[in-house]
């Protein structure tokens, strides 16, 4: 997708679509007034008739707008200006992008605002770049009849007097972010027959080469040498051998702290011998979303050349039921030496992460964020749209929460009171891999905490938001690429 900035008047800008965000209750003056006049008062009329008042992400379409150069016109609501957040702006622009990408286009023009200053123009342009890059890509990987048509050219109209030169880097950064979100979405949307540990690792190697990331892949013998008994036990039931991918972006001054991003990469979660019923298994190609998020974020960090030292670790396994699958009652010895009683083979994500977190600490991680589609319990607690955060360090957790807030992604912190530790005690080993009926998201986090050696660590349970069951006006179903924006923001802030 090509993206340009221009200051052409709205009425004379040519394209397949002119998209105009409109705030609720705004006056029809300036460029918006001129547009209304050119359209013979259309905007005033649809506001009066309440067919379009500008509520957030509300849309109105005119397919034969006489009086302007563009072939079609889409108004999208921004809600009341005082309440407009980053999340709201993104939602409105993504809705617009989705509304106009159902057919092939050559040129889409977006009028990003009339009375906005340079800082606001920068913010809006960057957000628009991301929203348009993401909004025009669908789940068409294997459809002969495509439902969505990526934009060739998007033109952003800004008030005359703003310097396009200074805005271009923000727009480029927004596009990089959009590309990375789409990468995470694609990796998640690929079926498990295509995306398995080895093929995921190959993709990571290719991307590392393309964007100059350091890259190390541990195959089964290497994982055995590392004594990753917990991760290997999950992989044992599958014909697909496991992989651990470690990417490195080292662009900070020597001595700078090392941030580790750790992702759960279960390329398919059948549940193992604790087999999932069909309904629960149906979407389990998405169980590598944590790893996809880490890979996509590493690519964005490298492309943006952020002056930081970040390592990205992806634990890749397939959880199956083969003859050598781990069994209930098995006792595993993790890389750290901690012994684990397996009481449910479907609680496999924590078994994978146990060894990857331990490895991240060995690699020098000073701070850790892990991402995992870890528990249904987190979805029960917070719903499908909110990420659960659990941490051993409030200061570090606040940094993650603040980054999420700035980009408009929803995270809610869950408590980590010491008494939850009781719930993962085992009669025969150091710990067991389930915590009983209640507080399942937290007992899973308590399990992970055992492997981070007291490093400041935030666990993000993305089981709800990583994969969407159906389309919404502002986003496609399937992989969502959630948390890529938050992580890139977090890393940018530490730069
Ligand atoms: N991958 C699942 C969690 C999940 C559920 C992700 C729904 C996305 C949507 C995880 O491996 C799992 O099966 N967790 C179990 C844990 C339980 C056995 C303690 C769960 O949540 O039921
Ligand atoms: Mn599972
Ligand atoms: Zn899982």
Features:
Aminopeptidase; elongated; binds zinc ion; alpha/beta; binds manganese (II) ion; 20% strand; 495 residues; binds ligand BES; Leucine Aminopeptidase, subunit E, domain 1; eight-stranded mixed β-sheet; 19 strands; 2 domains
What's the CATH class label of the largest domain?
Answer: Alpha Beta
Shape descriptor reads: elongated
CATH homolog superfamily of the largest domain? Zn peptidases
User: What percentage of the residues does DSSP assign to strands (E)?
Assistant: 15-25%
Secondary-structure arrangement, i.e. CATH architecture of the largest domain: 3-Layer(aba) Sandwich
Reported for the largest beta sheet, the result is: 8 strands, mixed
**Domain module count:** 2
The tally of helices reads 15
Mean of residue pLDDT?
A: 97
Instruction: Report the structural category.
Output: alpha/beta
The largest sheet has its strands arranged as 7-8-10-9-13-17-14-15
Task: Output the CATH topology of the largest domain.
Answer: Aminopeptidase
Radius of gyration, in Å, reads 24 Å
**Sequence stretches where pLDDT stays below 50 over 5 or more residues:** none
Tell me how many strands there are: 19
Cα distance, first to last residue?
28 Å
User: Which cofactors or ions or other ligands sit in this model?
Assistant: ligand BES, manganese (II) ion, zinc ion
Task: Estimate the helix proportion, in percent.
Answer: 25-40%
């Amino acid at each position: 997708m090509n993206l340009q900035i221009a200051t052409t008047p709205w009425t004379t800008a040519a394209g397949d679509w002119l998209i105009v965000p409109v705030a609720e209750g705004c006056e029809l003056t300036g460029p918006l007034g001129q547009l209304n006049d050119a359209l013979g008062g259309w905007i005033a009329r649809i506001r009066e008739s309440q067919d379009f008042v500008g509520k957030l992400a509300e849309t109105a379409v005119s397919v034969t707008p006489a009086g302007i150069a563009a072939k079609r016109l889409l108004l999208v609501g921004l809600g009341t200006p005082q309440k407009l957040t980053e999340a709201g702006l993104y939602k409105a622009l993504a809705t617009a992008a989705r509304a106009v990408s159902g057919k092939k286009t050559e040129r889409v023009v977006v009028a990003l605002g009339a009375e906005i200053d340079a800082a606001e123009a920068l913010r809006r342009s960057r957000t628009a770049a991301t929203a348009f890059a993401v909004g025009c890509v669908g789940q068409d990987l294997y459809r002969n009849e495509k439902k969505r048509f990526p934009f060739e050219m998007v033109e952003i109209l800004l008030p005359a007097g703003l310097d396009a030169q200074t805005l271009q880097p923000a727009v480029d950064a927004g596009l990089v972010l959009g590309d990375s979100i789409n990468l995470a979405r694609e990796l998640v949307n690929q079926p498990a027959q295509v995306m398995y540990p080895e093929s995921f690792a190959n993709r990571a190697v290719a991307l590392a080469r393309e964007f100059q990331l350091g890259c190390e892949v541990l195959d089964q013998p290497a994982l055995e040498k590392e004594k990753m008994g917990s991760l290997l036990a999950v992989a044992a039931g599958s014909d697909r051998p496991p992989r651990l991918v470690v990417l490195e972006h080292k662009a900070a001054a020597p001595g700078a702290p090392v941030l580790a991003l750790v992702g759960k990469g279960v390329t398919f979660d059948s549940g193992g011998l604790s087999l999932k019923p069909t309904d629960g298994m149906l979407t389990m190609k998405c169980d590598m979303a944590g790893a996809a998020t880490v890979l996509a974020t590493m690519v964005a960090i490298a492309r943006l050349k952020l002056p930081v030292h970040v390592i990205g670790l992806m634990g890749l396994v397939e959880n199956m039921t083969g003859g050598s699958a781990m069994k209930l009652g098995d006792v595993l010895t993790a890389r750290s030496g901690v012994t684990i009683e397996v009481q449910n083979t479907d609680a496999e994500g924590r078994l994978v992460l146990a060894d990857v977190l331990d490895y991240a600490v060995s690699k020098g991680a000073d701070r850790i964020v892990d991402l995992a589609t870890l528990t249904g319990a987190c979805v029960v607690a917070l719903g499908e749209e909110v990420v659960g955060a659990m941490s051993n360090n409030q200061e570090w957790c606040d940094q993650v929460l603040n980054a999420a807030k700035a980009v408009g992604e929803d995270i809610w912190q869950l408590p980590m009171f010491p008494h939850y530790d009781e719930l993962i005690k085992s009669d025969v080993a150091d710990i067991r891999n389930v915590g009983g009926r209640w507080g399942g998201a937290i007992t899973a986090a308590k399990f992970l905490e055992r492997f981070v050696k007291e490093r400041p660590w935030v666990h993000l349970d993305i089981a709800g938001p990583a994969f969407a069951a159906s389309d919404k006006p502002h986003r496609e179903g399937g992989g969502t690429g959630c948390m890529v924006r938050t992580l890139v923001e977090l890393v940018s802030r530490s730069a």
